[in-house]
Amino acid sequence: MKIGLNATCLNNRPSGARQRFGGIYGNLIKSMPNDEFVVYEPSDCRVGDWFDDAPNVTVRRTPIPSEGRAHKFLSGLLYWKTALSNERLDIFEGFNLPLIKAPTGKTLLTIHDVRGIRSELSVLERTIFKLALKNSIARADHIITVSETMKQEILDFFPSASISVIYNGLDTAEFANVTTTELKMVRLKYGLPENFVLAVGHLERRKNYLQLIDAMGKLRDRGCSCSLLIIGNDSGDRKLIEERIEATRLSGTVIFLTGLSDLDVRCIYKLCSLFVFPSSYEGFGIPILEAMAAEQPMVLSDLPVFREITQNQGIYFPHNDEEAMASAIEKALTSTSERARLVSYGKERVQAFSFQRLSGQFNNLYNSLVP
Predict the structure, then answer these.
(1) Is there a contact between 33 and 359 (Cβ–Cβ < 8 Å)?
(2) Is CB count within 10 Å lower at the N or C end of the chain?
(3) Which DSSP symbol is given to 23?
(4) DSSP code of 141?
(5) Which residues of the chain have pLDDT under 50?
(6) Are 280 and 319 in contact (CB under 8 A)?
């Protein structure tokens, strides 16, 4: 079998899509040594290097940048038709819109979420995204998405879509192998307090950090004060968040960190007192898996996908209710029995998201599509 992977949307910026691609497909390539993989990498990132010179991988460096919609589209017009006609692929998988359709074999499309049709965007943005999504789903032979919740959301808009669910994953050994020395070095490096609540995600509206800041203010007013550490790049909301911090009189107790190494992030997960995920919208939620692997308790906004990942075994709060958020955080910080229950559950549950297991699901899917 000859499998093409359109990785031109990926780069070295931390993201769930990058983690999924490297973890699942890295294992998949190793588990299918007799099949050929062709990785189409962008002009600005050596994606092929992520696969350690696997003998069954051929890398095609494209002129297509990983970012910039107009540039990507124009570069692709001049590239894909010739490139794909020369390959004779059995499977061609894409990870972004608009879909590139291969002239041979089956074309697959992975969809992480459909937030482009949500109401906080302009009418024009939603219209363009919906058209691109509808066209791409109609042209794809099969859709892959990351949760049952996401599958239903897609089917609500496109009832005839052919969809498989394959979760995102995690290498739990990376967390288990963190040493005491590394933990001490990271605490010293960033001057981390003894106790802090951790949130992970880029600084954008759907991550709901403004509500989280308000909830931390209410906790302080109740006498349950704790520092908050946010790991994430600024995606447009940092100024608003900083203004809310000042208005809530939390300056000095909220820490922002960005540009961290993977090891630093793993250490910070293991050093925190509690992980909180206050998002108003997600297609999955890889930080939930990371907190589980780090053996930390967590509190989550009451999203269907979060309940799916945690099988209704977590502590949840309405994302738009800072009082409920504060109460959930306080409960998870102060209840020894609840903390132990959450940690015990997470250690067991995270095993379901191993890259090896998920790559096996991809292998089965490919073989079902290409007899």
Answers:
(1) no
(2) C
(3) I
(4) S
(5) none
(6) yes
Regarding whether 255 and 120 lie in a shared domain, the answer is: no
CA 26 to chain centre: 17
Residues 167 and 169: their CA atoms lie apart, in Å, by: 6
Please state, as a whole number, how many other Cβ atoms lie within 10 Å of the Cβ of residue 55. Answer: 8
Where do the H-state alpha helices sit in the chain? 16-20, 26-31, 69-77, 80-85, 123-139, 148-157, 173-176, 180-190, 209-221, 238-247, 262-271, 286-293, 304-310, 322-334, 336-349, 355-369
pLDDT of residue 119: 64
> Both 243 and 321 in a single domain?
yes
In the numeric block, which tokens belong to residue 24?
A: 């699942």
What is the pLDDT at residue 77?
Answer: 85
| 285-300: pLDDT as tens digits | 999 999 999 999 999 9
Same domain assignment for residues 245 and 312: yes
Task: Determine phi and psi for 322, rounding to 5 degrees.
Answer: -70, -25
Separation CA 274–CA 281 (nearest Å): 21
pLDDT reported for residue 14: 80
Contact between 45 and 66 (Cβ < 8 Å): yes
- Do residues 92 and 39 share a domain? yes
Cα–Cα separations (whole angstroms), residue 92 to 158, 250, 251: 22, 50, 50
Give strand pairing partners of 143.
109, 163
CATH number for the domain spanning 81: value is 3.40.50.2000
User: 148: number of CA atoms within 13 Å, CB side?
Assistant: 7
Q: Among candidates 280, 219, 288, which has minimal Cα distance to 249?
A: 219
Tokens of 147: 């949760």
Distance of CA 285 to the CA centre of its chain: 6
pLDDT computed for residue 225 by the predictor: 84
Burial class (CB in 10 A: 0-12, 13-18, 19+), 159: exposed
Range of the domain at 111: 2-169+354-369
Structure tokens at 341: 């229950």
The DSSP code for 101 is P
Please tell me the distance from the alpha carbon of residue 182 to that of residue 170, in angstroms, as a whole number: 20
Strands lying side by side in the sheet with 142-145 = 57-61, 36-41, 2-6, 91-94, 106-111, 142-145, 163-165
CB 116 within 8 A of CB 129: yes
Count of domains in the chain?
2
